[in-house]
Amino acid sequence: MAKQCCESKNHEEPTVDYARVTELVNNMLKPPGAGWYALFFTCVVAVIWGGSCFAKQIMEGLHVAGINHPIGWGVYITNFVFWVGIAHSGTLISAVLFLFRAKFRMPIYRLAEAMTVFAVLTAGLFPLIHVGRPWFAYWLLPYPNERALWPNFRSPLLWDVFAVSTYLTVSTTFFIVGLIPDIASVRDKAKSSFRKMLYTVTSLGWTGSNSQWKHYMSAYLFFAGLATPLVVSVHSVVSWDFAVGLVPGWHATIFPPYFVAGAIFSGVGMVLTLIIPLRKVFHLEEIITPFHFEGMVKLILLTSGIVSYAYATEFYVAWFSNNLFERFQFWFRPFGDFKLAFWGMFTCNCIIPLTLWFKKLRSNIAYLFIVSIFINIGMWLERFNIIFTSLAREFIPAAWGGYNFSWVEVGITVGAFGWFGMYMCLFIKFFPAVSITEIKELLPPPVRKKLPVGH
Amino acid sequence: MAGATQKFGLVSLESFVEFRSLKMRGNKIVVGVYPYMDDLLKTVEKVKEKGLDYRVYSPTARQEIEDATMPEKSPVRRFTLIGGITGCICGWSLAILCSLDWPMRVSSKDIVSIPGFFVIGYELTILFAALATFLGLLHYCRIPDLFRKIGYDPRFSDNKFGIAVGVEHAELDQVRKTLLDSGAEDVDVRDGL
After folding, report:
1. Quick check: B20 pLDDT over 90?
2. Is residue B24 domain-resident?
């Protein structure tokens, strides 16, 4: 009779066996029900609405959006930074926490990686939408041309092209590599011929031999090591889109760590927004336990603290600088025309996460879901604050102005959420959204003779 | 790939083809299916003592299996290093040569602005290193290879461990008995490549 290798030190870690893990994840891939179809078609309708708004913008010009002097970067750039930020947390959970051997990442990192890839795909839409003439977007690339022109390699906007493209490629590769053994597992259980064919092709013939695992684990370690500096560098580069400029409120050296911490904060919030309903709908309580949520909450508290500190630093440095324009900017943010956005951001990002210090609240999964929604809202408002308020009150009053929000921008924003949701729905139904092999790695292997505790 | 010997198929086209061929010594393959990992590890020791070609399957990576079968480092790291160096050179070269080709003074910065070009070199270093690692993974794992699964059983991706041993016809019965005595719940004999 087999005995467990050793008893789990943390009784909230998964205690299922290998077969149960395979069964639970395969159950997620059963033909979808009415709920999935309703969600999927809602996302598709949102994409169609967003797409038609974009088509209107192409046909009539950028004037249908609210972008104008002085706020030349508006909703589209806010969305771009928001979605790139969301993507970072997925890489943190899958790569950085892998290097730290954090066990709480195991059941959630697959969904977080998927979130990364789809969020970067969503973010990549916005520079194309924002430039107004997306058919000239290839001008950003360094290709030989008859005008003898090259892009400006000293510009953060071009650094962004390289950074976000690299991030998309590396994240997608990391994602695919992680999926290979799990797809092999669902391939062997697939019943329909379509799924059998799909999984046979996408698993690349993986068999799980000793040599394959050896090289796989080595490659995975290198991917994690390469993705980790990307987490830091890509959002630092995005922050330099603002910090390299002279605009009061943007020209600050705190921007790279401020943005990176904020990105992880928003991404962890989005992971919770996705994983909590997924766990409920697919009955994954045996695999995703309160232990895993505890780890996520600690990440939220840490990054919320860093973001709050960054806000305080910005205000302090603006005052300490004795620079009239900088000081005015940081008076305008809490008391000017956009004060609702500022106080909304402050409440969602700094005050509400503080409630997670109370065990009774952070143990309540439904409350965690509500907090995650507030985090998402707060982080969108943060990007709104940074971009809109700084541009609305640049230097002298002759340069001041407002913004006319338009339905085109609202439609494209909603369409972007639909675009992201559409890909997530398809992923959850066609590929294993929870990592089968890594959860099995966490579990004690089936052995005939029990080994001492701690072996 | 043989558990006992290391061939990584990089030296010549011939060795590359042989590496990808998945061939095991012997004209028969005996496949054992194990419910317990420690039984499998004991079998691996016995098979190694006999000097036979073997391959071990498991539902997940296990350090115990790695220590017993392939304790040396994986050469995937070489791909990562070469890719990273290539990317670094390409990134810096791209930015520097393009700037020298069209030497436009921007914001009083140098034509060859080292701090400004750092990001381009850095990103391409990581990109090329990651793509090279992926290629190395495909090469050493010998994938994609959709249809040849020598010694594979679908139970190995679920909750069973396995060993496939390449044998000559004369050794067949002895190896079958060894696997059954070691705790295999199922033993199958298949034709080799």
Report:
1. no
2. yes
Burial of A443 per CB tally in 10 Å (0-12, 13-18, 19+): buried
Residue B3 lies in a domain: no
**CA distance from start to end of chain B:** 13
CB contact under 8 A, A222 and B57: no
Residue B30 lies in a domain: yes
Nearest of A266, A304, A257, A244 to residue A78 by alpha carbon: A266
Q: Does residue A454 lie in a domain region?
A: no
Here the tokens at position A178 are 């992680």
Is there a single domain that holds both residue B85 and residue B128? Answer: yes
Q: For residue A295, what are the domain limits?
A: 18-136+152-170+205-442
User: In terms of Cα–Cα distance, which of A181, A174, A171 is closest to A214?
Assistant: A181
| Separation CA A3–CA A17 (nearest Å) | 11
SS3 for B123?
Answer: helix
Nearest by CB to residue B137, choosing from A2, A215, A237, is A215
| Mean pLDDT, chain A, integer | 92
Contact A154 B109 (CB under 8 A): yes
Chain B interface includes A452 (CB < 8 A): no
State how many domains chain A has: 1
For residue B6, the chain A residues in CB contact (below 8 A) are none
Looking at B141, B157, B177, the residue that finishes a domain is B141
Q: Are B56 and A209 in contact (CB under 8 A)?
A: yes
* pLDDT for position A3: 35
Of B98, B119, B146, the CB nearest to A159: B119
CA distances from A202 to A107, A186, A413, B144 (A): 21, 11, 32, 9
CATH of the domain at B28: 3.30.70.120
Residues near A337 by beta carbon (within 8 Å), at least 6 away in sequence: A392, A402
A12-16, A212-216, A321-325: least confident range: A12-16
Same-domain status, B19 and B65: yes
Closest CA–CA distance from residue A206 to any residue of chain B (Å):
7
Residues B54 and B149 in one domain: yes
Considering its fold, how many domains does chain B have in total?
A: 2
How wide is the angle at C-alpha A248 spanned by C-alphas A242 and A251, nearest 5°? 40
pTM: 0.91
- Rounded to an integer, the average pLDDT of A127-150 is 91
Complex confidence, ipTM: 0.91
Chain B 62-91, residues with CB within 8 Å of chain A CB atoms: 62, 64-66, 69-70, 73-74, 76-77, 80, 91
Chain B interface includes A246 (CB < 8 A): no
Q: Tell me, yes or no, whether B39 and B62 share the same domain.
A: yes
* Same structural domain, B42 and B92: no
- Does the pLDDT of residue B2 top 50, yes or no? no
Q: Show the domain range for B37.
A: 13-73+143-191
